[in-house]
Amino acid sequence: MGKKPPVSTALEILLSVDSQIGDRQKIVLLGAGGHAKVVLDALRAQGIRVDGVVDPELAKTESVWRALSVLGSDADLLKLDPTDFLVANGVGSLPGNYLRQKLFKKFKSAGFNFLSVVHPSTFIGSGVVLGEGVQIMAGSIIQPDCQVGNNSIVNTGATLDHDCMIGEDVHIAPGVTVSGNVLIEDGVHIGTGASIIQGVTIGRGAVIGAGTVVIESIPEYSKLMGIKPRLTNAGNESDL
Ligand SMILES: CC(C)(COP(=O)(O)OP(=O)(O)OC[C@H]1O[C@@H](n2cnc3c(N)ncnc32)[C@H](O)[C@@H]1OP(=O)(O)O)[C@@H](O)C(=O)NCCC(=O)NCCS
Fold first, then answer.
1. Would you say the CB of residue 93 lies under 6 angstroms from ligand 1?
2. Is the entire prediction scored with pTM above 0.70?
3. Closest CA to 55 of 46, 64, 45, 44
């Protein structure tokens, strides 16, 4: 008999997210923009109580946001004991904007840990490994033996097929389809609705435009946009 393969059902992943939270730790959301709303709803759908939000702009004018206490700015939180808190990154990610990555690094180096978010409507296959602060949004599917690195987002309704390796600080935007055995390196943005065929590598820091079809490996720090349809002969039953 071979070694039993690792199994991580959606339920086990949800439980492991829950077990990240210490008895007396408070959960604080970083940011109060569009992505933060999605993160907050996903955490609440998991039954996780969020204790407050920090956002420098919001703190100037509001004391409550979406039934959360506005606790001040990032700088205020960074002055406190990191072991008293778990943070959820509410800052989204777009090409050329590195605020989400910067916040992750800044809070990690100050000793804070990040909560991972797995919306209960996702399907997570066996053997899936998720890093710290990963966010798997509503309706997404992650098939067996995929790995998703720290601070990466698999956004609404995106799918990763079997054995995909996703690096750190990656954003797989809403509705993206990634076929099996794809390697996506650190800092890549895959735009809304893009499709990627099996077995290719998307190099570090590359940007794939919304709706783009990727049929070959893409070098690091390059940008690929658009679809170029081409009509050829597909063969037919007489080839059998
Ligand atoms: C790829 C992308 C980053 C390009 O942005 P950009 O570098 O600012 O490019 P521009 O908007 O200046 O467009 C440059 C050219 O590329 C074309 N282009 C831009 N995005 C394209 C796309 N996805 N597919 C095909 N062509 C595209 C533009 O029409 C323009 O063509 P032109 O020179 O003939 O006028 C952007 O269009 C994109 O797709 N972003 C992803 C958005 C996303 O995933 N959002 C998720 C939110 S959760």
1. no
2. yes
3. 64
